[in-house]
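ok so for the tutorial part 2 we go from a plain amino acid sequence to predicted structure tokens. step 1 is just haveing the sequence, like this:
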Amino acid sequence: MSKRLFIAEKPSVAKEFAKVLGVGGAGRDGYIESGDAVVTWCVGHLITMSYPEVYDSSMAKWSASTLPFLPENFLYEVIPQVKKQFDIVSGLLLRDDVDTIYVCTDSGREGEYIYRLVDQMAGVPDTKKKLRVWIDSQTEEEIKRGISEAKPISEYDPLSDSAYLRAKEDYLMGINFSRILSVKYGKWLNNNLKEKKWTSISVGRVMSCVLGMVVVREWEIRRFTKTPFYRVIGDFDIDGSRFSGEWRVREGSFFYEPEIYVKKNDQKDDESDAEDKGDKSADFSLSKVLYKENGFRKEEDARLLIDRIGASQKTDGEDGMITGVIESVEKKTE
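step 2 — the prediction. this is what the tokens look like for a chain of 334 residues:
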């Protein structure tokens, strides 16, 4: 009796498929089988790319003379820690009674890559029918739909090609840059770190970018300087209700862009400065006396505002409502 083999990326997903397919009974070592269906699983990646010393034993020693390392044909090998599961999966893929293979690894580039490597290393013949199950969730309805609508795996060859290409790019970048930087700067780094055991310099497409972001942020923190700015706070009494308020600049007002403070030729430089520092003031055409839309760079300008408002209110026969200047601190890097 011919059988269908379903291969998932991890055991938990395989169990969901087995439940939907009605594949029960006692679980075998690394797979589940009953009736005309067999369900097995990878445990993530089972195959990895071989290190340079597998190509040439002389590459075991890190040397600039052996770089760049650019093999014409890439070599792959089974990851030792998961060899047992690979042997189980490859044995099932090659079983004579298995004529249809449903690839149920995660729907994405990496999931595609995981199966293709296993298929490649196991040497699965093209005479077997290979179908790709593409699902968005692991609900019973979605799994049934994915199986019924499974397409020939050849339709996903472009996705597979992109996965292989990404893996090769990561490999070449990591191998070559890690080695050359370690050879060139490793001794200096280890001496400065006072490491008792040699530590290589690791480089990776994702790792280096993420670590770079961490380093940049750390430098921002270390170079942090406090820059004070002055806010004007007032107490207001309207119809017997009292509340506190904060002054904010209004477009067209005296402090928005007063000619006595701002020269048109300087405005461009001021806006560029605001954009570089990530200030919200970059959205405004603020004068140089303002640090933000609600604060002044200098205390005397904040007090000038108080005087102007106070004078205006006294002219109208009212008492001044502005109570004082509060100094705030804005975190930024100079």
